[in-house]
Amino acid sequence: MFLEAIVLGIIIGLVRNGSITNIGIMKIRGWYLVILAFFLQIATLIFDNLSFFKSYGRYFYIASVLLIILTLIINLDKKGMWIILTGALLNFIAILMNQWKMPIDFEGLRLAGLGHMVDKIISGEIVNYVALEKVVNWTKHLGKYIVIPRPYLMAKVISIGDIFMSLGIIFFIQGEMTRSYLTLKNRMVRMGYKSKL
C-alpha cells in the first residue's frame, strides 16, 4: 500500500509540474529512524524461526512503530505529515489495546492469497498479529480487515490507519515535488549579481 502511495504521489507531482529532483534533496529530520524501524520489522519476518524473535519479536515491532511516530512528530511542518501521523496512531492504538498485536482478518488473508500467513500466525511463527475474530473490543475496527484481493499483484489486507498513512504519503510526496527549493548556489549567484549592480 505504501509503495503504491509513493508511486501515485510521484505521478501526481509530475502532473502538477513538480520536479522529481526535489525528492533527492528534500530533508527529513531523523530519517535514519525510519530506516532502523524498517530493519526492525524486516528482522521479525526474516528470522521468525529463531526462538529469540519468537519471544521478543513483538517488542521489535512496537519499537519500529514508536520510531516511525517519533520521526513523524519531528517533521510535522511538512505537508501530509499530520495525515500520516493520524494513521500511525490509529494502528498503534490497535496494537496497544490488543497485547501489542495488530488484529487481522484471517478470511481476508485467504481472499488475498495469503493463507500461509494465517498458518504462521496460528503456529506462533508470526507474533505481530492476532485473529480479528478474537478481538471483542472496539479496536477491531482499527484492525486489518480491508481486503485488496487478487488478481491485484500486491494483494493484501489493510487497516483504516494504513489508508490514512497512504494518503498522507501521497500528499507529502507531491507536496515536496512541487515545493520551490532555493539552493545555496542559487543564493550565491543572486548575491553576486546584486553586488555588481
Description of the molecule:
By secondary structure, the protein is mainly α. It has one domain. Helix content is 61%, strand content 6%. The strands form two sheets. It has a two-stranded parallel ribbon with strand order 1-2. Strands 3-4 form a two-stranded antiparallel ribbon. A hairpin with a 7-residue loop joins strand 3 (146-148) and strand 4. The longest helix is centred in the first third of the chain and has 23 residues, at 51-73. 32% of the residues are buried. Mean pLDDT is 85; it is low at 183-197.
Quaternary arrangement of the chains shown?
single chain
The beta-strand count equals 4
Series of secondary-structure elements, N-terminal to C-terminal: HHHHHEHHEEEHH
Overall pLDDT, averaged?
85
- Estimate the helix proportion, in percent: 55-70%
Give the biggest beta sheet. 2 strands, parallel
Low-confidence stretches: 183-197
| Overall number of domains | 1
Brief account:
The protein is mostly helical. It contains nine helices and four strands.
Descriptive keywords:
197 residues; mainly alpha; two-stranded parallel sheet; two-stranded antiparallel ribbon
Strands, helices and their partners?
Layout: H1 2-15, H2 21-25, H3 31-46, H4 51-73, H5 81-96, E1 102-104, H6 106-111, H7 115-123, E2 129-131, E3 146-148, E4 156-158, H8 160-177, H9 184-196
Parallel strand pairs: 1-2
Antiparallel strand pairs: 3-4
